[in-house]
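As noted in the main text, all predictions were made from sequence alone. Below is one such record, for Beta-mannosidase B.
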Amino acid sequence: MIEHLLHSGWTLKARTPSLSLQADFQTQEGWTPATVPGTVQWDLLKTGQIDDPFYGLNEKTVQWIGEDEWLYSTEFTVTSADLQAEHVELHFEGLDTLCTVWLNGQQILVSDNMFVPRTINVKSCLQEGLNTLQLVFESPLEKGRELEAQHGRRPVWNGDHSRVYVRKAQYHYGWDWGPVLLTAGPWKPIRLRAFTARIDDVYAPVEVTPDLHSALVPVQVQLAGTLTDQILHITLLGPDGQVVQQQQVQASESSQVLFQVDAPELWFPNGYGKQPLYTLQVRLQAGNEVLDQKQLRLGMRRLRVVQEAVLGESGRSFYFEVNNQPIFSGGANWIPDDLILNRISDEQYRRRLTQAKDANMNMIRVWGGGIYEADVFYDLCDELGLLVWQDFMFGCGMYPAHESFRASVQQEAEAQVKRLRNHTSIALWCGNNEDYQIAQSVGAYGPGGDESKFDAKVIYEVLLREVCERLDPGTLYWPGSPYGGDDVYTGLTGDRHTWEIWHAQMAPYQEYKNFEGRFVSEFGMMSAPSLALIQQSMPEAEWFPESQTFVHHTKATGPNGKPDGARRLAVYQAENLRGHRNLEEYIYNTQLVQAEAMRYAYRDFRKRFEGPGKYAVSGALVWQLNDCWPVSSWAIIDSLEIPKPAYFTIKRELSTFSVGIQKTRDLEVWVSSGSFKTHEATLHLHAYNLQGEWVSSTTRTVTLLPNRRTDVEAWQLDTSPLIHFAELLIDDQVVARSSEFPEPYKYFHFADPQLQLEYLNDHSIRITAQKPVKGVWLDAGASVGWNDNFIDLRAGESRVLEAPDLAGRTVQVRYLGADQATQVKPAVVGA
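Prediction:
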């Protein structure tokens, strides 16, 4: 096969309505060099025609782009060898979104779905030498409003109501954490393919036997083109690169072979084992000529979603079982890492997903208001051990279901399921994000609801289910998130979104245990981003939390659609902390509240992963891992890639062992284990008074049961306010720590911890506390990846924190109760 990437020589311009379309294409004026793959906004930004929409209030000045039509044009050369091929195709991997295509003046395509690749046989349209390819992109906003006028206005949460009619990334219309940026352009590669025959699809659904002793790898290959006497060579390589098995068969439109692998090397999620990957090579040959070839990486794993009775409780469990082991699914929701999608590099994907892995996460939910992510995203999830909960791209809206819309959705679903189904990381297909919830809110679902008003239910419960069960029958299809039967809020079956904290009644974050579900697939607490990001994205005169620009970069809205993020942040601060006195303290306070909320959430949800027959809560996915622009949001990593304190809190709570302590009448103590083995452990408990003086200590010897919670004998102390610490040791090594300071923090004056800090070398700092201290936060700006941060120390304790890129940087140190941050400079001892 001869393949040409058609990515060079492109120009773009805004459509001039006073000219005919062809006259507009012929005009010499207004054209700008264009990037393919790319978007209009990216090229206008690169050529200085617009200001950075992420800076200051510039978002408001670029809205005209989404209201205009845009022309793209290029010329490319076709050789006689290309034309001699039996088949010549143009393949558009992705067009954003409403696009009509002309080749040499002949219309060859009308596309209206950003998520559907398009392939057109163009041999009869081509000529030897120069050929002209022209694209017109309509305004998604204008087209959506035309469809809305035709079919009716529909309820949505976030963005323009017309978005539900357009199969475009929904977050481009604006969300409660993101700006409005209605991109247009060929956002994925464009290829010209000349061939006799080619490989169209390879499907290899690995089946590990229940005893885990062997695996079947049925390989199905679909071919396109003219088939005569070609041969398919199919080879399976082990994780070490050595040939395991190979076969060759006569090529046909649909060919199948079967491999059986004895004693397969099993793939486990992050934290539960290794991630060995086999390689499947498929090669189509005519004699010694290779016509086409494809390669897949496959993990050998047995995965089920188990829904069974929970002992002593109503409802059913909802836990992922991998290689016969129940897994606590700790992780995060993923939004696209930018709005200008072609800016997201492979390395950026690697950095972000590695941050998730390093936080001890084992699951990522690809949220339904974004995109089906790039191939490299799923490759990395396979490699890093991150299971993927994959939504279809419907979010927070009452979507239509007329015939042409359903047909487009079916094409989309078939294309994306085929593209992604071979990935070991794909653990579940999910119909939508919160569409059952919004339907219930308007009386179209739930108790007493009129489901005849819920048009898209047929998409979620019939169309998408049929596609998934036909194309990927080994992976569970789930109708929506949240979804659990007749009421999305019960939490007794399926998954639940816990937004009683932050949204709804704004319950205290200490009450996460009161709003659990069998699988909590969304929950979160907002905070400000890092100081470095604020300084990079706003004019200096606006560096205060109440400024117009700061509020503009806080997109959260209330039930009335009006901004209320700052108000809710203020409430949670006021309930727990003393008021901030400057921007730096505001950042620290909001991030501390977020981190403490995550401590309660992950600790309490994981506590309910109690063992066989009692997996009452089996998943916790924070909203959200990442940001797509500079904003105050629920993200635990901001768009400058700086983790917030909550990131490190979650990392500790999701480690193989975590300790829970909670002051009720006595000090309640438990340990959660993610190990498949039993461990003998020692637990040290310490208590201090508010002056930082030691009060009491005790030691418990604990047998930690495998992969569940183990309760520890409570510690009886007097009822005066005390500070408690716990350290869990296995083989004399500390494997988990926990602490509890009396709350609300604003009521108490904690003793000066008399911190001592010193650089040990170019990548590590030692911190010593003379008195108990909470929330020690080290800030060295962007590009400094700490192994730990936001730590609590007991009296006399020293800890060493490491960061590979620390060399020469000044570090700002802050903790709960500090009057101001302290600077620690290289080679300076003490603070």
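The first helix runs from residue 21 to 26. The first strand starts at residue 2 and ends at 5. These features were considered when defining construct boundaries for the mutagenesis experiments described in Section 2.9.
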